[in-house]
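Minimal example, chain plus FE2/S2 (inorganic) cluster.
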Amino acid sequence: MPQIPEKVHELTVGQLSARSGAAVSALHFYEAKGLISSRRTSGNQRRYSRDALRRVAFVRAAQRVGIPLATIRDALAELPEERTPNRDDWARLSRAWRSELDERIRQLGRLRDHLTDCIGCGCLSLDTCVLSNPDDVFGERMTGSRLFPERPARERTSDR
Ligand code: FES
């Protein structure tokens, strides 16, 4: 891993990539999504503060456990004055995300348990296939295999 001298307070995108393990394209994506920020040099090159390393580590750790980027961004935005998350922040946020993860694990367990029914089947029935309709979302609102709720007649005639 490349070492960055202590006196260097800003990192190029390549240095941030090498130190964080995130691809340059991922860093650009994080920046576009408002998860990290940089300043531009007179030559229009990105420079990141050293704090960006901790923010990228935070984002990657959260992503690894399946937290959506929008949720991560909201969590970072809650920190006072866009402070970089510290150990206490991570502990607090990971506690808050635990129930979300528990629910996701429960859903995945259900899918896994029913997967053997689907192997070699291919029907993808909305009535019986748990992969096709894992939460039976349509069964609660309507019968049959309709994916879209009925639209008012006024809207249907405007399609013609
Ligand atoms: S594909 Fe037929 S039950 Fe899932």
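Residues 103 and 109 are 10 Å apart (CA to CA). Helices lie at 13-20, 24-32, 51-64, 69-78, 87-118, 153-158.
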